[in-house]
Predict the 3D structure of the following.
Amino acid sequence: MVRPMIRTAHVVDLSRCERGNIALTFALVLPILLGAGGAAVDYGNAIRIRAAEASIADATALHVASAETAVAATEAIRLANAQLVARLGDQSATGGYTIDGKWLDPANYRIVISMTMKTSLVHLLPGMPKTILVRTATTVNRVAPVYETKAPTMTQISPEAADYNRIYVYCYSSDPKRQAESDRGRRGITAIADNGSPPTDYGSNVLPTCKENEALSYMLRNVRNARSTRSRWNETGTDTYNYYTDISIDPITRVQTMSMKGSNMGNGTAVDVVRYPMLETVICDTEKQCKPPSDGGTMVEHKAGTPGTLSGVGCTEGKFIYYGWEDRPGGDQDYNDIRMVVACPKRVKVSDKKLRIVE
């Protein structure tokens, strides 16, 4: 009797093959399984980090918005970074923390805190990153400060210029809604000086009183080749140009930012005041430092070239600003056709800032 032969070796080979398929399949699926599980871990970490950032951002924004000095505001930012390190570690391996705070306008301060988080396992999933940016933002609204309105302490306009030049003051609003209105946010435009022969007396003109979100700004009206012809001084045609400083003031640092604009009054054509600067500005500790030697001061006469700017220097109470104008763009660039010295504005005390988080 012939017994059937069982090919055990063949059965074993099949078994090994099946185990190999399972192992191969598991090896292929494992990163996905780990990635899916890691996604929950990474998501949880991101939520935890963002919650810490949000808590610190809220506190920091409130501190900065209520600060009375730049030193106090800077200390609030330093403290925020220290708190982030204490709660979340220094995160130096991924670049640390970014704290970006700025005044959107004199009434609204916004701070953004962010950090880059390394993912644990989620990057094993196709297309998923190895790092995630975790950020939060807080905006605090407060009562905007009000600044005193005062005329320049000195105004000199060259009587030898061929052009007729007149200086005005006005209140400029940093509120975008006001800037969108027909007057572009400029209110109470009032003449204060000119280079007529003799100069016009504007002493009876009442200066505008700037309110919340407003800063005293200056306008130059230039009428080409008209100084000696009084009948042309009020022309509004193509020989007349208006230049606006449009000043905004940082409520903490008191840095003044000028958004200079110029245009032809007759046809509305814009003047490129970036390519052809019209104004030099200098912060002085005393009024004497802002006056030229011819007027008893120590201001160094400007040589032709690039004008000085405020360059982030705060115009704090007790200091002065020197304004030196060119009456035409691309002129001799000595910035002395019109000279003004202005006291840095005093802030009217606001006892109740009414702080509230709006973002």
Remarks:
- The chain has a mean pLDDT of 82.
- Residues 9-141 form one domain.
